[in-house]
Write a structure and sequence with these properties.
By secondary structure, the protein is α+β, with helices and mostly antiparallel strands. The chain is built from six helices and 16 strands. Strands 10, 11, 12, 13, 14, 15 and 16 form a seven-stranded antiparallel beta sheet that branches. A hairpin with a 4-residue loop joins strand 6 and strand 7. The protein is globular. The termini are far apart. The chain binds uridine-5'-diphosphate. The site of uridine-5'-diphosphate has 14 residues, from strand 11, helix 2, strand 14 and strand 16.
Length: 250
């Protein structure tokens, strides 16, 4: 038996447990607190809605460590997150939430699906950040939606959509400044939010914030330091993640 105690949470037989949920990059397990879950970061990388898939040693470790640094920093800046505590190399304790089925994307510079959809050259900076929603449903291919769709699909109320956008812009401001200190330019990122199980009126940041979910370019060279290295087969994928973690720890 591998008994791991973290600030009063007993996580028995950590290796023997069955996850209550398994996603593309993470698995969720129960703890002895019904409102707290253990989130395990996996080594798998996926792109293009799971069509491209490969395992990379240490990927879970890098993304967990980067998310932890970012969530602690955001909490200190007044942004509520699902983070409860650190556990080990690849596990965090998180508050149980019901995930709002929206992918909230903030863009500072044109790239990815924006460049493709709008025919705007990658690297074109926006005058102001763009916030957009996708409806989280793999079978539909996470379609682009607006607040009215979100309301009618029962994903979030109009008031919640407004609050979510405000929160996303605040996170963008804090992250831009934070990454810039690490000589990284925040091109765009995706966040997910959840309603706390213990109080569903409270919405907090959930999921990860890592080079899997952010586009990060080196300020001087413009080198891509994120999942685009995997999507585009550029090589040096984990080296870039290690470099991001190293810069954020300095
Ligand atoms: N993103 C993500 N998960 C998704 C879709 C997008 O984390 O399912 C992130 C992506 O890494 C990028 C930002 O959201 O930092 C904007 O992605 P975009 O819409 O350009 O889509 P992509 O080019 O990734 O298809």
């Amino acid at each position: 038996m591998d008994i791991l105690g973290v600030r009063g949470y007993n996580l028995p037989a950590i290796n023997d447990m069955e996850p209550i949920y398994e996603g593309k990059a993470k698995r969720l397990f129960t703890t002895d607190d019904p409102n707290v879950l253990r989130m395990e970061y996996k080594d798998s990388a996926t792109a293009f809605n799971g069509v491209k898939k490969e395992d990379f040693e240490n990927k879970g470790r890098f993304n967990k460590a980067i998310t932890l640094i970012i969530y602690r920093m955001l909490e200190a800046r007044g942004v509520a997150t699902h983070l409860v505590d650190d556990v080990d190399d690849i596990n965090l304790l998180v508050k149980k939430v019901s995930i709002i089925p929206l992918e909230v994307i903030v863009r500072n510079v044109a790239a990815g699906s924006f460049s493709k959809r709008m025919g705007v050259t990658e690297g074109t900076a926006f005058k102001k950040p763009i916030v957009e929603f996708s409806y989280k449903d793999d079978s539909l291919g996470d379609p682009f939606i607006n607040d009215d769709y979100a309301r009618e699909m029962g994903a979030a109320t109009e008031e919640e959509c407004l609050n979510i956008k405000k929160m996303a812009l605040l996170v963008n401001d804090v992250l831009c400044e934070f990454f810039l200190k690490a000589n990284l330019r925040l091109i765009d990122f995706k966040i997910e939010l959840g309603r706390l199980a213990e109080d569903p009126t409270k919405i907090v940041l959930a999921d990860e914030i890592s080079p899997d979910t952010c586009r990060l370019w080196d300020v001087e060279t413009g080198k891509k330091m994120d999942k685009d290295r995997f999507r585009q087969g550029l090589g040096g994928f984990m080296e870039a993640y290690a470099d991001v973690l190293d810069r954020l720890q300095k």
